[in-house]
Every structure is written in structure tokens, then in C-alpha cells.
Amino acid sequence: MLNHITIMGRLTRDPEIKVVGSGITVAQFTVAVDRDYQKEGTEKQTDFIDCRAWRQTAEFMEKYFSKGMMIVAEGSLQCRKWQDNEGNNRTSWFVNIEKVYFGEPKRERSEEKPYTTYAREPMRKPDISAADFVDLPDDGDLPF
């Protein structure tokens, strides 16, 4: 059996972060996902998908994601059955998120939250001259 889902859309609000009783961090959020198909002459339809991310993924989301940002999320579809205050049986569906990715380049994102960048320094040409090398004697015992 396979239960894998990938969604791409915009966050409807900042991720809501909680720490559950066992000290595990969970992020709850909703992703607005536009449907691919649209009947001619009708408005584009959007699905609002509830999601939960755990541990490091939740902490990453709290640090780098905010309302309105495009997100790509992978996980599994889960169902929760419960009873409301009137005793009616209810079912709610959500995506249990395992991985998240930025859905747009940084330059297109809003700068509401600080982003860490890891820029590599340009490679510099080493300052080497022939005087820096020493001739080694050839003892005929090369490994190749």
C-alpha cells in the first residue's frame, strides 16, 4: 500500500506552533491549493488543506515560513475520527507533513521573516610560485 501526497500552495496563516506533552514540537497550518481544472466561465476553485508537521520540520517552518508564502509539502494523508460536543461522529482529514520546500525563489518571497543564507566565497587563485616546490628524489618506488 502507498499513502503519499505532495501539495503546492500558499500558507493561509503563519504556522501555529505547539509543544505537546512529550516535548515534541508540532506545527499546524493550512495550505490553499488551486485546482488544475477550471470549467470555462467559472471561477478557479481552491482547496484548503489542513497540515501538521513534527519535530525539526515544525521548527524549520516556524523559522522560515509565514502567511502567503508558496510551499511544497510532502507527506501522507491521515484521518481522525472523533465525537463533537453533541455526540455526533465527525471525521477530519489532514496531511501529516514529512518534508517541506520553498515554492518560490527567495527574491519573490516577502521579507517578513529573516532568512539565513549560506553564500560561498568566490574561489581565489592561490599565490604559488616555482620556488614553493621541492624536487623529490626518484627512488623508483612509485605506486603507479
| Tally of individual domains | 1
- Per CATH, which architecture? Beta Barrel
Gap from first CA to last CA: 53 Å
Q: How many H/I helices?
A: 1
Task: Give the % helix.
Answer: under 10%
Q: For the record, what is the CATH homologous superfamily label?
A: Nucleic acid-binding proteins
- CATH class, named Mainly Beta
SSE succession: EEEEHEE
Provide the gyration radius in Å. 26 Å
Give a written overview of the molecule.
By secondary structure, the protein is mainly β. The protein has a single domain, classed as Nucleic acid-binding proteins (OB fold (Dihydrolipoamide Acetyltransferase, E2P), Beta Barrel). It has 1 helix and 6 strands; from the N terminus they run E-E-E-E-H-E-E. The protein has a 5-stranded mixed barrel. The radius of gyration is 26 Å and the shape is elongated. The termini are far apart. Mean pLDDT is 83; it is low at 113-120.
How do the helices and strands line up, and which of them pair or pack?
Layout: E1 5-11, E2 16-19, E3 25-34, E4 46-54, H1 55-64, E5 70-83, E6 89-102
Parallel strand pairs: 4-6
Antiparallel strand pairs: 1-3, 1-5, 2-3, 3-4, 5-6
In short:
This protein is mostly beta strands and about 140 residues long. It is built from 1 helix and 6 strands, in the order E-E-E-E-H-E-E. The chain has a 5-stranded mixed beta barrel with strand order 1-3-4-6-5.
